[in-house]
Design goal:
globular; alpha+beta; 6-stranded antiparallel β-sheet; 9-stranded antiparallel β-sheet; 2 domains; Beta-lactamase; Lipocalin; 11 helices
Length: 456
């Protein structure tokens, strides 16, 4: 019996129930899975409990596998990190400045996030998102968030493009390539990229979120058919095998240089150092260096944290959208690595994001912003209207969204399709009338809208 089993089970006791979703936990020490257990249910309808061989949707934890596929091709001299995306995916726009494979791997490409763009256009997670949809959407973009290499902003778009580069170079889908070159060599028999929304995944865990009224749970799912940014299903057992390869590499040419590449970072253009490597982030926890990545999407919350100096990795995979796997892993680390950890320092609570105060505008001022506006980058029409003295935005038959004026010609939607805030910056023509606006999210900036003509 694992030394800390009783204490660990107490940490997860809230989810150790036949009426709740939960998680699978794996603890790897010196390449051995020393503790693996499921808490809660993989499927509430069928009464299937979570187990170490339960296959969870990994969400963005998938990115390190996409990055490894690219690293293997670099090692084999089939591509270079300095290659431009348009060499392999000519449907990607020419922004007048090269976006390289290295930029996309390390999230410094400036590419707008395709998920944010999709939500802006009214797409829902239950809609099918195909590769053709993705390429059409990316191909319509007229600008980047910033010059490649100038900033770090997480972008799922880059990782989907990386999956397409693997396909163009090898003639194999990312899933097929990963199966042949990564999963099979490492004995990861329960790991697969889901490349079609109707694909069967053995031992697949269902995703859940808490019901709006707080009474029970509701199903969560998505129909993404693009991969690279996500798409991978795996188990704590298989991820332990993956983790072992970071100490003694058995992939590609079997060289330690492959792992060094996976851990490599690069500074921004101005020399600012970065911590994001190949689908992996460098950091520290209580004085110990860590290598980590998390993921979250529609009922999936996942995290792997490696403590390389202690040859220890903790894996936590959950099927509940409110679950915090990073916090739970750190509680486990506090227990099993206590003698190696520096004293915990109570960090100040994170400062709440400053909410710009609303600016009072009279009816005439608000009316200047009303009308229909079209975005050729999204192929969608937004309608702005004044309802009960409030500026609102609506599109695609959805309920109107309240807009809050925060400055002259600037408005903010605080809850836009439950995806966080959106900011509108209006533009005016030579006559002073509102001619359009740009719409920005955290990962997609400056999407253009123009006042719609009647023939659209």
């Amino acid at each position: 019996m694992f030394q800390y089993a009783t204490e660990i089970d107490q940490i997860f006791q809230t989810w150790d129930s036949p009426s709740s979703p939960g998680c699978a936990l794996g603890i790897v020490r010196h390449d051995e899975l020393v503790y693996a257990r499921g808490y809660g249910m993989a499927n509430l309808e069928l009464g299937v409990p979570i187990a170490p061989d339960s296959a969870f949707y990994l969400a963005s934890v998938s990115k390190q596998f996409t990055a490894m596929a690219i690293a293997l091709l670099v090692e084999a001299q089939q591509l270079k990190l300095t290659d431009h995306v348009r060499q392999y995916v000519p449907a990607a726009p020419d922004f007048g400045t090269p976006v390289t494979i290295a930029h996309m791997i390390r999230h410094t490409s400036g590419l707008r996030d395709y998920l944010d763009l999709g939500f802006m256009a009214g797409k829902r997670m239950e809609d099918v998102w195909t590769e053709a949809d993705f390429l059409a959407q990316v191909g319509r973009q007229k600008a980047l968030n910033f010059a490649p290499g100038a900033q770090y902003v997480y972008s799922n778009t880059g990782y989907v493009l990386l999956s397409l580069i693997v396909k163009r170079v090898t003639g194999m889908s990312l899933g097929a390539f990963a199966q042949e070159r990564i999963f099979a060599p490492l004995g990861m028999t329960q790991t697969v990229f889901k490349e079609h929304h109707q694909q069967i995944i053995p031992n697949r865990v269902s995703g859940y979120s808490s019901a709006a009224d707080g009474n029970g749970f509701v199903n969560e799912y998505h129909n993404l058919q693009v991969v690279g940014d996500g798409g991978l299903y795996s188990t704590v057992e298989d991820l332990a095998r993956w983790d072992a390869n970071f100490y003694v590499n058995r992939l590609g040419q079997g060289s330690p240089a492959l792992i060094e590449m996976m851990y490599s970072t690069a500074p921004l253009i101005d020399g600012t150092p970065q911590t994001y490597a190949f689908g992996l982030g460098h950091g520290t926890y209580r004085g110990l260096p860590i290598i980590a990545h998390g993921g979250g999407l529609n009922g999936a919350r996942t995290q792997m944290i490696r403590f390389p100096t202690q040859h220890c990795t903790i894996i936590c995979l959950s099927n509940l959208s409110s679950f915090d796997p990073e916090a739970m892993i750190k509680r486990v680390a506090d227990l099993i690595l206590a003698e190696h950890l520096a004293d915990a320092v109570d960090a100040p609570p994170p400062a709440a994001a400053a909410t710009p105060p609303a600016v009072e505008m009279d009816a005439a001022a608000l009316a200047a912003y009303t009308g229909e506006f079209y975005s050729p980058e999204l192929e969608v029409i937004y309608k702005l209207a004044v309802t009960d003295g409030q500026l609102t935005l609506s599109f695609g038959g959805q309920e109107p969204i309240s807009l809050r004026p925060i400055a002259a010609d600037h408005c903010q939607a605080d809850h836009f399709q439950d995806e966080g805030e959106r900011k509108l910056a209006f533009t005016r023509g030579e006559n002073g009338a509102v001619a359009g606006f740009t719409l920005s999210t955290g990962r997609a900036w400056g999407v253009q809208f123009e006042r719609a003509s009647r023939n659209i």
